[in-house]
Design goal:
The complex is a heterodimer of chains A (about 230) and B (about 210). By secondary structure, chain A is α/β, with parallel strands linked by helices. Chain A contains 6 helices and 10 strands. Chain B has about 210 residues and is mainly α. The radius of gyration of chain B is 28 Å and the shape is elongated. The chains are: A alpha/beta (about 230), B mainly alpha (about 210).
Chain lengths: ~230, ~210
Amino acid sequence: MIEPLLEAVNVSKDLGSGAGKVAALKGVSLALNGGELTLLVGPSGSGKTTLLSILGCMLTPTEGTVRVCGHSTVGAGPEDLALLRRQHVGFVFQSFHLFPTLSATDNVRLALDVRGEPSRAARIRSREALAKVGLSHKAKAYPRELSGGEQQRVAIARAIVGNPSIILADEPTAALDGENGRAIMQILADIAKERGHAVLIVTHDPRLLPFADRVVHIEDGRITGEERGGAKQQ
Amino acid sequence: MVRVAAVTNGIRSFTTTPFVFMDVNRARAHTGVPYGKATYLLVRLSPGADPDRVRDQVISNIADVEVLTTAEFRERSRRFWLFGTGAGAALFAGALLGVIVGTVIVAQTLYSSTKEHLNEFATLRAIGSSRRYIYKVIICQALISAVIGFSIAALIGDAIVKLTAATALPIVITPGLNVGLFVLTVVMCIGSAFAAIVQVTRIDPAIVFTR
């Protein structure tokens, strides 16, 4: 049996303290396998982002365990979690989070810079990553010179350039129009298929369902259902 | 009756009081110093003479005198002005104030800049950068501030040196002083980065999902 790239077992997370304490997650278990694009779907306040933060090693669970490429996050400190993110996880954010004063290439290169990769090799790999998302011709452009879809493609290039096994995306199409949203989803689906990455996308956009190999529903901090099926390529 | 034979240029005391050169008897007559008395006597040595040996000989031959070499006299004057008068205290207080104000200004600038870019720092943390990497970024910013600040100050200092060169109180900035000031500026700027570093240390990378 193939070990999942990312696995959460019986994860609970309490946020706040005292009377304001909220159980954001209640015994969630989820495993992500390589080559699969999984959608995490649920209404606002259902715990999607909290689960994404825990799976992405930004938060530690109150209870339960998370294993990232075989490494448990139990007892891990902030620097251990940063190391796990650096080595195994690529992120795509809803609002892109590109650096406005850096070119597209330099924004991508940043992900390699934090990994300590030498500058020249990093520049070459960054250009390759931009080529994979179809942005070779915009390598020198600054974020303000790019459309929303192009900025998100730069963010995807930044997420994949370090060759992490897991890509986590938070509402990656929410700020985009339909056409750009579909293009972004196709890129993420291709990344899962061609590179064997585990891709998890948090969304409540039903237009993304055709791209998913698997759809996980979350509500009120609990996994309420799961659908499997072949992704429809467009 | 006194005839001014020549006017010197640049020969003044630390307080810019000018010196008047004349023979010793005339000086005594004008100042009322009795014959056989003097405050200082300047001894000019023959080429090749050993100053320390001459000093020892003078001390052994004349009672109640203090004999100083050029370096010793220079050091005594410096100590007197720096530590024996209010002028030194004012200078040190001014320098200390400069260091404190400079450090606070750079600290404020770095702190504000970091606060404005918390999102970027959170993104860096989210994509896996270590704290050390972020500290490096902030310290690099501090070093850039140090180099820019020192360069501007050095240019102003150089202009002041040139402007005061022909005045009664010329200001001298030696290469050694320049190096010392640069090191002090770098230390100040790195120290100033502390507040920014403390702020970044508290960043929760998960804020990237909510901004």
